[in-house]
Every structure is written in C-alpha cells, then in structure tokens.
Amino acid sequence: MRETIRSTRSVCPVCLQNLPAALIRESDGRIFLEKSCPEHGSFRTLVWQGKLDFEGWLLGAAPLPEGQGLRCPRDCGLCAEHEIGSCCTLLEVTPRCDLRCRFCFARGGEREKEPSLDELKSAVDDIVRQCGPVLLQLSGGEPTLRDDLPELVRYAREAGCSYVQLNTNGLRLAREPDYAARLAGAGLDIVFLQFDGTRRDIYETLRGAPLLEQKKKTIEVCAAQRLGVTLVPTVVRGVNDDDLGELIGLAVSLAPAVRGIHFQPVSYFGRYPAMPDGDERYTLDALMADISAQAGIPLTSFMPSRCDHPLCGFHANYLIEPDGGLRPLSSITHSSHSRGCEKDNREYVARHWRRTPDEEPPAGLLSDEMDFDSFLYRLRHNSLTLSAMAFQDAMNLNIERLHRCSLHVYDAGKIKPFCAKYISPIEKTDES
Questions:
Q1: Region of 256 on the Ramachandran plot (φ > 0 left; ψ -120 to 50 alpha; else beta)
Q2: Helix (H, G, I), strand (E, B) or coil at 71
Q3: How many C-beta atoms surround the C-beta of residue 42 within 10 A?
Q4: 3-state DSSP assignment of residue 421
Q5: Is the sign of the CA dihedral 363, 369, 372, 374 positive or negative?
Q6: Which residues is 271 bridged to in the sheet?
Q7: Which CATH superfamily is domain 88-355+371-389 in?
C-alpha cells in the first residue's frame, strides 16, 4: 500500500525545470520523493528509511504552501518566500585545491581564476550589509592556498562578522604551524576540518591519498593555537558508514581540541563518481540509526535542526564522562520554527564549536555528584556535539526544505541557499 504524505515541489534532475513532487510512503515504512518531467520522464529517490517516526521528527513543520516555490531554484536568492535569515554564509575564496577528491560539491581544482583580496573584502562588506553579523565560512576549493587568508579573516572580523570559520582539508595547517598561528591571531574562531574516518583506506578511497596522520597533525596544530576543531566526514555507504562509532571515539579522545563532529551524508552534486539507485540513498534517519548502534548513543538524544527544516539535519550534545562515555544532554522535544531563529542558531554553533579560554577546574570535578560550577566547567571543556547536514541534490531536492535554509552562499551579489547554489544536473540513463 502506498500513501501520499504531502505535496511539494522539486526539479527535473536532468533539465532542472521546476516540477510538482510528492512524498510517498511505501508499506515497508520507507519514504520516497517522486516527480515527473514531461520531457525526461519520472524519477523517485529514497528520502527516509523508516528508522525513526517521520511525522514525529517533522515536529509539525508545515508543508509548502500552494502556489509557492514555483520559481525555485532558478531565480534563487533570499526572497519574500524564504522563511529564515542567514545563520552561516559561505564565501568561496579560491577555486584552487591541492586535492582531487572523488566527491566535491565545489569541483575544487577545475578552474584557475580566483578573486582578488579587494574583491573578497568587498564581498564581505556586502554579506554584512545584507545579512548582518553572520557566521562567515571561508571555503573553496581549498582556502588555505591563499597566502593572504589571514588578512581576509582580520578584515571580516573588523567588518562585523560575528564569527569566522575555515572550511579546509587541513593539509597546509599541518605543514605550516606558523600559518595556523597567523590565522588564529587574525581572529579565526573555528576550523571545519574535512575528516572522513579513522582508517587510511577511507582517505585513499574518498581523497586519493592516505591522509589520516596529516589530519591528526592538523588537530594538534589547531589545539596549540586554541582553534576549535569540528570534524567533517562525508559519509558514503560502503566506504565509511561502518566507522562512525570509531570516529566518535577518536573525537572523544581528542577533546577539548575537537569540539564536535558534523556528519554530511553524501549528496550528488558537483563532482561525484556515479548516481546511486533511488533506493540506495544514505538517508538522515539511517545515519542516526547507525551512529546509535555503533556508538551506543540513544536515538532519543538526536534533535532536528534548530533553525532549518527538520529534514535538513540533527544536533545532539553530550558530556564526556571520565571513562570516555557520553552522557546525553538533549532529547527530542517540540520546538517552533520561525523567522528570527538564525541568531540563536549562530550563537549555538559558536558556543559549541569554539574553544573556550583556559580556566582552573573546580574542586571535586570528577566526583559522582557534580555541583553547578563543575557541570558548567565540563560543559565548556568536556563536551562533544554531534550534528549533521543532509544536503540536497537534483534527485532529492525538496523546495519545502529549501525555503527553510539558513546556510547560504554569496554568489555575485546574491545570497543563495546552499543547495540551490550548488545543484547540478545529472545525465538521464535507462535506470534513472
């Protein structure tokens, strides 16, 4: 038996034409996004495995209103239909890259021309003018290939960006600690570190080289500069989806230098080896179920994204116990999704991903009965945040989700939702 859960809009994955779409639940509990293009035929892709209650996870999020989303994402920019302001705005500072990863939303290394420093400063001014005191993410390509990046970081802080985050593979930071020191001195807050797992073969498969030791060195260098590190694994079924528990264990052992893990179940835009079959997607609920099973973390500790659409991601907070165990500090509760939450979300990210200043631990910190001062100390210094962002591609794009996006990209004067900026067409095959 098939059940239509709700109607929405999407795009044809071949021509990117805007189309009506529907979420369909099969008798086994799996949910698919289905759509049909007059020219290229019908498409369906898995969006929910049925590992968690779908309606419960949505927390009452309203469906896309009839008549809205008709021009998305072709004419995308923040318009009157968009429900959320910018929490984090990404600025591409270079297309160059020193890796050629199999999966890359920005197709790093495929173009050579990059903006000048003056052009980037002008872009920062425009971002602050349009979005206010955002969390600015400097990305690429590989942004550390720019020697003038510390100057840009300093300018961004002076221009009014609340926080500056670096999205990096970390290789230059590992090689050149002095460069990391310059970034820290300029005001960098967070290092968003590509870190796919705990085994060499994972990096050989996804990044083309056994980079694990260089990645660990990057964390060591950042720790010396008191730069908070968030590990960012791209999770690919059959490559590293069996390594999630080990990765969490490694992050615990590296705290407080490592502040959290931000999982990104693979999406298919930019550069990728092949599009999966419609029922082979690695969905958000499958990721949560695998983390729970591998790390011994209760599923009830995961909460839907605070600001974006519930289907866009999750977050969960834990105290690190003296024995390395994780004590959940969060559970699924009803929360409203409304305009204006981007500031709260930005402060939440900064609070959990930045390093806090050194301070003396209170007496009795490791006793079984913590007083409030001990609890606050451990929350600042002995905690771990797990989060995820399930990016959308041309196959699974749900414009209902797109309207709730608070992760944006600066693109030639426009502020665009991340998934709208990087969406790319696929080639139609007989199996599509």
A1: alpha
A2: coil
A3: 9
A4: helix
A5: positive
A6: 104
A7: Aldolase class I (3.20.20.70)
Tens-digit pLDDT string for the chain (432 aa): 899 999 999 999 999 999 999 999 999 999 999 999 999 999 999 999 999 999 999 988 889 989 898 888 877 777 767 777 788 999 999 999 999 999 888 777 776 789 999 999 999 999 999 999 999 999 999 999 999 999 999 999 999 999 999 999 999 999 999 999 999 999 999 999 999 999 999 999 999 999 999 999 999 999 999 999 999 999 999 999 999 999 999 999 999 999 999 999 999 988 888 888 777 899 999 999 999 999 999 999 999 976 789 999 999 999 999 888 999 986 654 444 444 466 666 566 655 566 565 545 555 555 555 554 554 445 566 889 999 999 999 999 999 999 888 899 999 999 999 998 999 998 754 444
- Separation of alpha carbons 255 and 352, rounded Å: 12
The DSSP letter of residue 209 is S
Q: How many residues does the chain have?
A: 432
Domain boundaries, the chain: 88-355+371-389
